[in-house]
Each structure stands twice: as structure tokens, then as C-alpha cells.
Amino acid sequence: MPDSRPNVLLMHAHDLGRHLGCYGVDIETPRIDALASEGALFERHFASAPQCSPSRGSLMTGRAPHVNGLMGLAHGDWELHDDERILPQYLSDAGYETHLFGLQHISQDTDRLGYDYVHSEGNLYPGVSPTVHQANRGRNVASVVESFLAKSAYEAPFFASVGFFECHRVEERNGRYGFDAGYYRADDPESVRPLPYLPGRRGIRHDLGEMHGMVYALDEAVGSVLDALARAGLVEETLVVFTTEHGIAFPRAKGTCYDAGIEAALAIRYPGVVDAGRRYDDLVSNVDVLPTVLELVGEECPAGLGGRSVAGLIADGVGGYDERDRIFAEMTWHDTYNPVRAIRTNRYKYIRNFWHLPTVYLPADVFASESGREVREAYGLPFRQYEELYDLRDAPREDDNVAHEPRYRDARRELSAQLLEWMNGTDDPLLDGPVVPGDYDEIRSWPHDPS
């Protein structure tokens, strides 16, 4: 390990999943691919939740959403518990100067996050209007970061959280949610490779082609930031992490605990410490990112985290490595109540649903998209079963629920018991009954005075 602590540059994108060239997708993302080739790329990195705020909360706290309190969207009356600490606060205690660029989307009170400097307005909500998210487009966020690095206006070491808007959908004409094709360069729908878990219908291809424009813009923004880091002469002394919070905004992805919903990119570069050009297929959760960063900068991990460091896997001389044999995922509230808990192992995915729910939940932006219109009738009914079990060896697309097949009885019982043990051990409030929303007091209020 180097004698001095590195700067930490954390770049994170919206609704991207692993839709990148370095993950075998038919799309050109040369700058992110190059970053991955210069460090460690995790091929089975999963989010704690298939939605924005809860997953980002886990990334920043190292704890599951129902543990840190962020069980729904931060702009929808959900907040981290008052005593919850996040990555910039840990690094600030270690002497880092902390900076926020672009989106954060984990708290309505930016001051509560404890950054020394906030460089972006409107950093909470990604917005659904093309004008709302203007400041957080990749090129604009990258420009602010470039100016920061060019002026050397910081006291090393620094921590910079850089949040890009792409690839979040926006509300367009007639209530449709798309990818702002009037601003981004879309691909021809006929040229894109269909998603393996959805039918290759026109509306789905149309949306996918539009989303590619956002991916290209994101890739260029990441490249601009990395170029600015190089011009500042900071490549060798900077730990760079690139990730995203959950799967793409398509049916059976965002808002679901299927792999397409919880898959997330993760690339880590630290020259001379993290082995370059390595790809890892270990199971990794985004609650593991915080302890990994702390260990790589030489700080002790606090007690009570749900994550575990993977620094010992990707770097020499930084301690041991405790390999995972399972990861957990969850969802409670988004734009509606969707209480789900899940466990994934190398072979199986077990999902427990705790409410009367449609076959596939579609978040509002997906429901009102061209893709959503192609499938929403089929996905609306009948209600999904309370238990889902998928043998990922035989059904990697999670399209064959074997929860009630006799030959899978033992696997179902074992995974169900492990999931319950985790929920009990983490005091999951869902075990006590339905979880009320953050605005429950307002719902219960009765302003009419009969007198």
C-alpha cells in the first residue's frame, strides 16, 4: 500500500444496470470499458434494492434499506435514520475534504449529508422533466468537476461524489416517459439487440435505442472526468470507483428483484494497488462498497455494517477476504407499496412477496413508457405468487418459478429459512406487518370538522 492516502473519486449513474460494453452488451462505451480494464471489474455485483434512493442509501451506509431507514424514495417522505452515518462523513473524520457534484438522491436535507462543499443545485431528485435535470446531465456535471480539478481548489486528500442523471427516464409529450431523444443521440431501433428477458417488440426496441443515447453521453462524461484527473496529475494517487444503483428502467428490471433489476456495474481502479485488468465473478453487494473504500484508504470499518470489504480480493497487503455465498435484496415502497425480500446464491434466487401484487411491478416511469405499454396488460394480472424460486442454472432469465415443485422442496425451505434469519437478525419491520409510508400521518389526518 502507498504511504499516503489516496483521493477517492466515486462516480455513479442512474438506471444503468450493467448495460455497458465491458459487460458484453452490444453497445460502445469505450471510456468506461477502459476504466474497467485498468482496474477490477465485478461481473456479479448486485444492488440491495432495485430502485434509486434505497440502493444509494445502501451504497453510502453499507447497510440494507430497512436497517438504515431509507425504504422508499428520498423525495417521498423517506429519510435515513438520524444516527445513520454515510461515506463522506467517515472520510471527513479521517481528514478528507469532501465534495458533492451532481445528484445524491438519499436525503431532502443536503446539509444532513455532511459534505464540506456542495457544487450542484437540485441534487436530490433526478426529475422527470427535461428542464429539471439540466444541471445534472453528464456533460454539465463533468464540466464542474473538470473546473474543480483544474484549479486544484482542494486540500488533498479529497473525496468527490459525482452523480450523473443518465439513464433516468423523463416525462415527454402525452404523458410518455422516454429517454429525451431530442437531446441525446438515439440508435435505430432495428439495430439494437433485444433484451433477453423481454419480447423483441417495436416499443421495447424503440426505448432501448433511445436509452443508448444516454449511455453514450454518460460514457463521454466519465471520460471527461478521467481526462481532467489525468491533466491534474492525480491518476496514480486516486482511487476511482464507478458504479450504478440498479437495473435499467425497463419491465422486469427496475422495480423488481430479478437479476435484471438488481444488477449493477462496479469497476475499481487504484494504480499500483488494485490489480489491473482483472474480472471477478464473486457475489458482491453494493453494501460492500463502503467497507471496501475504507479499507483501501487505510481506515477501519465501523461495527454494525451489513457489507464486507472486497479489498483483500482485488489488492495485496490489505487484509483477508471473506467470500460471500449469498446476497440479499429488497423493496418496500416506491410510487406504490411493493414489499419484497429476496436472497440470491450462486445457483438460486428466492423471492418472498408480502402483499397482493401484480405479476410484474412496473414503476410509474416504466408503466408509462413505450416498453411498458407493450407488456403492462400481461404483467398486471394475475397476482404473483407469494413465493418465487428460480434455478439460475436452468432458468437464468428467471422465467420458470419452481417454488412448488417437489424436487425443489429442500432448496425452497433452506433459502426461505436463510431469508427469515436475515430479516430477524436485522429487525426487518416487515415481519411485524405492513410498513406504512412516510406520509402516514397526513393520510390519517381528517381535516373535515363535522361541527
UniProtKB/TrEMBL annotation:
Residues 6-298 form the Sulfatase N-terminal domain. Keywords: Hydrolase. It holds the Pfam family Sulfatase. SUPFAM superfamilies: Alkaline phosphatase-like. Signal peptide: none annotated. The keyword Hydrolase applies. This is Sulfatase. It comes from Saliphagus infecundisoli. The lineage of its organism: Archaea, Methanobacteriati, Methanobacteriota, Stenosarchaea group, Halobacteria.
